Amino acid sequence: MATAIADIDVRPLSDACGAEILGVDLSEPLTPQTLKAIEEAWYEHLVIIFRDQDISNDDQVRFCRYFGDLEEVRTGKYANEEMQYTMMITNVTDTGMQTALENGEMWFHSDQCYYEIPCRASTLYAMEIPAVGGNTLFANCYKAWEMLPLDLREKLQPLKAHNIYDYVGNPLKRGDNVDPDAPQYSHPVARLHPETGKHALYVNRLMTDYIEGMDPEESDDVLQQLFEHSEKSEFTYEHVWRVGDLMIWDNRCAMHARTDFDPDERRMMRRITIKGETVR
Ligand SMILES: [Fe+2]
Questions:
Q1: pTM for this entry
Q2: Which domains does the chain carry?
Q3: What's the gap in Å between 157 CA and the centre of ligand 1?
């Protein structure tokens, strides 16, 4: 059911997470009231989508700054100073910009969980999309945590999991022989969200390697159980993109994955991320 707060409409997209906000033109600055309403909806729904937006890079930068300081692209070179926060997530090679060349399916993950300070939020602006597939799945990690058996939550609550950015160019498999120089960091299995005060399950199939303090066999078994649990359809929303979609999601309590698509079709997303805080 749609709810009207300030001058916007918030329409939930699934029981798990995700809401569409109507009545906002992101090519214009936001009023404080509209921003407050968007923030409230964001904390409630984790993933917010604005359809039919016609926005420049500068417009996306302005929108992101409402949510905090921007994260500079940490790898490679950016095209110019205005683009220092912008990464094109695309399979297209002729953008002339900082690009993450990405094709096909990608397992669930949380952006930058392998850094000490992962980004708080990510935004994607859909510029070109394939006819079929390349959808983004989001999982509500609050719900995944809350729905675990109590004894497992009590066991996991004090533990940390080790996350690594090393899947040898294949977004469906972590490397068996992990590069010791690969970006990696341990974070709590149950992450406390600083704004909502709720815990969210903070492990993911693509990047989480082991749980500290568990013997390796048990760690593998528990992680497998957590991956299967957190990826259940009751916790996930699948977003089918349209050109002009601008999306922001909360990396502290939502993880995401991508479905397969035809590599001969173009897919181009403009990504800008917002700096995070110490993980607790
Ligand atoms: Fe991602």
A1: 0.92
A2: 3-104+114-129+241-249+262-274 (3.60.130.10)
A3: 25
